Structures are given as structure tokens and as C-alpha cells.
Amino acid sequence: MSEFLHRLPEFFSHHTLLVMLFVVLVLTLVGHEVARLFRGYRELSPAALTLLINRENPLLIDLSSHADYQAGHIPGARYVPMSQFDPEHKDLAKAKALPVAVYCKTGATSAQAAARLVKAGFQRVYWLGGGLAAWKQADLPTSRDK
User: pTM for the full model?
Assistant: First the structure.
């Protein structure tokens, strides 16, 4: 181990670019993880969302397109188009103390909605990572509107 530590400065001097790239990569990963911890909402897997639904009955919001919602959605979900999603709306503002879970087809749009909910003062916000696609891939049930 001592020989390794003595040769480390020599390695750094010969591979400066590689060392700098490694440091940038480590700082990026650490920054991403710190940001994830402090963003105010939690990402859930389909199994974790199922557990949340069974234990706490959250307000479940589907932000997919209307056609996608009608084709299949998580049972009990309320459809709200992203263009009309307003965390300050009086009906939604009543649920600030309740758990709120959002999802969309792939998860990208609903992550933005989760951040907006946190910014509006919601305390318990959850986001289905991977969206409805992950839900379906886990072979969990969906409902269809007629």
C-alpha cells in the first residue's frame, strides 16, 4: 500500500487529463445525488406506488394525453392534462396535506409536475419513475374508460 501511495503523484503527473475527468465525473455524480435528496419529492417504483396506494390512498393524478388515459390508466387515477395542471387550483390545494402521486406515459412530464407541486407547498409528493410504461411492464392492472 505504501508503494502505491508513493507512485500516485507520478500517475497524476502523467495522466492529468484522465484524473481531471475522473474528478469531474465524481463531482457530477455527487451533485446529482445531493440534488435528488433535496428536490422535495420521491421517485417510486411501481411496487412502491402499489404499497402507497394500499396503505395511504393518495390522490393519484394521470398527466398523460387524453387518448393515453382512455387506453389505460392506473385504477383510481384522476385525469388532468398537463396544459391544465395547476397546483394552486382550489380543488387541488385542498389536498396539500394528503399524499399526492403523479405519473404520465413515460415519467418525464410528471417529474416536472411533481416539482411544481413541491414549489406550491405540497408536503408529500411522489412520482412514478418510468411512468405508466413501468407500471405496465410490472404487469400491474390498468383501467380503461369506455
Answer: 0.74
